[in-house]
Amino acid sequence: MAESPTTTIRFGILGCADIARKVSRAITLSPNSTLHAIGSRSIDKARSYAKSNNFHPSTKVYGSYDEVLNDPDVDAVYVPLPTSLHLHWAVRAAEKKKHILVEKPPALNVKELDVILNACDTNGVQFMDGTMWMHHPRTQMMADFLADTQRFGQLKAVQSAFTFAVDHDFLQNDIRVKPDLDGLGALGDAGWYCIRACLWAANYELPKFVTALRNPTKNDAGVLLSCDASLHWEDGKVATFNCSFLSNLTMDLTAIGTKGTLHLNDFIIPYKEAEASYSTVSEAGFTDMDLEWNQKPSEHIVSTDIPQEVRMVKEFSALVDGIKRGLAPVKKWPMLSRKTQIVIDAVIASIDKGFEPVEVID
Is residue 129, in this structure, part of any structural domain at all? Predict the structure, then answer.
């Protein structure tokens, strides 16, 4: 991470999406950023959004996205627009030398994402997607456990699920079920987190091939409402995930090693904003006659002074500040986005090919 900044990064937001309420709060709470501007296609909508979310009176309100990008005081933009619009507006933002924090998925496919990332490279701007759980201190502590060969051993399997049951209005009107807006559906929205978690557990090594499971659910427009897939590595480890708009709220992650196991049930959004927990167990077995376990998992509670979305904004802003001071953009975050997008592409290809295994090509 970049050194602690001494300047405040000024954010502009493109669009009035519901998720922007959470991130605008994070921008305000982060000690090294400020919400400078909000833009919408309608000035009335932008004004109403700013008022309803209690934006500071100094926040500029614009009736177009271009006005935000043309504001010379905007250092970085947060892009919560529908996925189909990311390519155009992220490239445009990069060309205006604005650093980019974009909602996931950042693109409809890796070909589009490469255009965005190339624009960021060309213009020397930082790129990061909005996968918030990556920035919680719990995540690093869990990674330390997975890297401990004495307690965890070698990774053998990962299981991940993110599901939530939506209502009829969502299924009819939400942008995530519209093929022209967010055509990746549940795979792009919920599956993104599951795939990132599987890659995270595997130290971001791409699998050799991916197989989508049969009978995914699609709406009449062909957008995925639920799906499952498995990821397979050359050394034999495997990961499976389930994502859905049709099942009860679940955010489970399990990583199984040769010596230990990691469990958590709220890996995307912790049960509590100020603390999060996970459990581990190493070299567990059974007592005599297999009556019970010889040890129970240990629960680890991790407190945080600021929520994970604020930590995300803080880290992003620190990277932007570093660039202002002459450092190069950090490559880690675009690399993670690209690997996640590659796996999403492979899942879609497997579905299209009748659920056959699809080789993952970097």
Answer: yes
Q: Are residues 278 and 317 in the same domain?
A: no
Q: Give the 3-state secondary structure of residue 195.
A: helix
Q: What DSSP letter does each residue of 276-328 carry, written as one string?
A: EEEEEEES--B-GGG-SBSSPPEEEEEE-SS-HHHHHHHHHHHHHHHHHTTPP
**Cβ density class 278-304: b for 16+ within 10 Å, e for less:** bebbbeeeeeeeeeeeeeebeebebeb
Give me the active site residues, please.
104
pTM score above 0.85 = yes
Segments in the chain below pLDDT 50: 1-5
Element (H, E) at 121: helix 110-123
Please tell me the predicted confidence (pLDDT) of residue 6: 60
Domain containing 218 equals 134-305+341-359
Residues 105 and 151 in one domain: no
pLDDT computed for residue 7 by the predictor: 86
